[in-house]
């Protein structure tokens, strides 16, 4: 599978101050990973194609950020179903080589997000979700609107989801445990730890990031391997 493919960014707020934390998060990841070449990052903003609504004013599939949200919205919960949104992003027609071709999608949304949970034990919401090698979604709803936390926390979560999307940390390490949907969580003092209890865990991750740096040595190593094109197995 191709690893060096563009990161396409989308958001559904148009111009907004949180955009700075998003761009900042990407810059930090590239610097931490010692990415020397120009990694392609394309900003689609609040994407709406010229044909995003039909004559009846109905949203046309795949043609706008509005449709992606609408199609995955659980109207009873008034939350966006993260699994469905990731599935749409991973299977979108834009991935066809004659259109955009293969890429990563990083989508920042304002709506509340959840992952369906058969046992009903989950917290009933999530802040970010990811499908490694394809896409990540971060919701600003809890962080900013419910918990009233600063942008540095949004940045922490965006950095986490970018790493998970790029396959960091590596599953092959002993100091990681399995997360949902093929992601892995690091066990060290590192933003790639599991975060569950809100808002305390995100506060702590951000505090550690600012004090000790974002990634532990092993995760930093994994990220640098990613950008140098080597795999964990090459060791
Ligand atoms: Zn780590």
- Give the strand line-up of the largest sheet: 2-1-5-8-7
Number of strands: 10
As for the number of domains, it is 1
Bound molecules: zinc ion
Q: What sort of overall outline do the alpha carbons produce when their principal axes are compared? A: globular
Structural class: alpha/beta
Helices and strands, in order, run as: EHEHEEHEEEEHHEEHH
Q: Count every helix, treating DSSP H or I runs of 4 or more residues as helices.
A: 7
Would you give the CATH topology? Answer: Collagenase (Catalytic Domain)
Mean pLDDT: 90
- Second rung of CATH, namely the architecture: 3-Layer(aba) Sandwich
Largest sheet: 5 strands, mixed
Taken as a percent bin, the fraction of beta residues is: 15-25%
Radius of gyration over all CA atoms, rounded: 17 Å
CATH class: Alpha Beta
> What is the straight-line distance between the termini?
20 Å
CATH superfamily: Collagenase (Catalytic Domain)
């Amino acid at each position: 599978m191709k690893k060096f493919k563009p990161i396409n960014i989308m958001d559904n707020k148009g111009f907004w101050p949180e955009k700075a934390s998003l761009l900042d998060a990407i810059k930090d990841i590239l610097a931490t990973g010692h990415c020397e070449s120009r990694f392609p990052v394309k900003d689609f903003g609040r994407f709406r194609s010229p044909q995003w609504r039909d004559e009846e004013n109905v949203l046309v599939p795949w043609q706008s950020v509005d449709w992606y949200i609408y199609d995955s919205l659980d109207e009873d919960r008034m939350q966006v179903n993260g699994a469905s949104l990731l599935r749409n992003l991973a299977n979108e027609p834009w991935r066809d080589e004659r259109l955009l071709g293969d890429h990563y999608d990083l989508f920042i949304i304002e709506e509340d997000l959840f992952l369906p949970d058969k046992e009903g034990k989950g917290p009933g919401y999530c802040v970010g979700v990811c499908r490694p090698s394809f896409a990540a979604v971060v919701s600003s709803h809890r962080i900013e609107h419910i918990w009233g936390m600063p942008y540095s926390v949004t940045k922490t979560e965006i950095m986490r989801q970018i790493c998970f999307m790029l396959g960091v940390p590596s599953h092959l390490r002993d100091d990681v445990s399995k997360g949902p949907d093929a992601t892995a969580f690091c066990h060290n003092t590192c933003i790639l730890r599991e975060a569950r209890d809100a808002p305390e865990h995100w506060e702590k991750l951000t505090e550690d990031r600012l004090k000790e740096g974002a990634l532990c040595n092993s995760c930093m190593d994994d990220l640098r391997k990613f950008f140098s094109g080597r795999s964990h197995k090459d060791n």
